[in-house]
Amino acid sequence: MKRWVLILAAVLSLSGCGYNQFQSLDEASKSAWSEVLNQYQRRADLVPNIVATVKGEASFEQDTLTKVIEARAKATSIQVTPETLNNPEAFNKFQQAQGELSSALSRLMVVSERYPELKANQAFRDLRVTLEGTENRITVARNRYIESVQEYNVLARSFPTNLTAMVFSYKPKPNFSVQNEAQISTPPTVDFSTPKK
């Protein structure tokens, strides 16, 4: 009888430890991360089509195209594994490569505004709309990932589940960060004055 009481006490003490909740939230964050990767892959798949369409514009700046191609190659060369989510350095490296691709694509879109023939090209317009939609999907996927990591990290740091986290080595997961936080926190200067001639 004493043995059954000890087993029952052990089961009751484990039920509040949060172990199962850790498993659930870990899987949720992995699933959310998979969706982020899915959207990044969608964007990477669009880049060759955009580059091919833009190359049709003979006078287009080749330097801009080269930077887009290089950024895509770098972003797709980084192998992402489940361990990447738990390694802040690898996670940061991946984020940096994706940020470089975003930046290169933004420059490409800005530069393309100077080419009326390119802007009039239906294929380019369609690709541009698809790319904008993909960027929005990436934002939504990242937001979902941020929320799932937040929930996991709160569980890992809250008492008494933080004890379970220590026993099973459940460390807080890295979240998205911005590389140029100081730069983007400064409001942009807007000047509507007429330039001097």
Automatic annotation (TrEMBL):
<keyword id="KW-1133">Transmembrane helix</keyword>
<feature type="signal peptide">
    <location>
        <begin position="1"/>
        <end position="20"/>
    </location>
</feature>
<dbReference type="InterPro" id="IPR023353">
    <property type="entry name" value="LemA-like_dom_sf"/>
</dbReference>
<keyword id="KW-0472">Membrane</keyword>
<dbReference type="InterPro" id="IPR007156">
    <property type="entry name" value="MamQ_LemA"/>
</dbReference>
<keyword id="KW-0812">Transmembrane</keyword>
<dbReference type="Pfam" id="PF04011">
    <property type="entry name" value="LemA"/>
</dbReference>
<dbReference type="GO" id="GO:0016020">
    <property type="term" value="C:membrane"/>
</dbReference>
<protein>
    <submittedName>
        <fullName>LemA family protein</fullName>
    </submittedName>
</protein>
<comment type="similarity">
    <text>Belongs to the LemA family.</text>
</comment>
<keyword id="KW-0732">Signal</keyword>
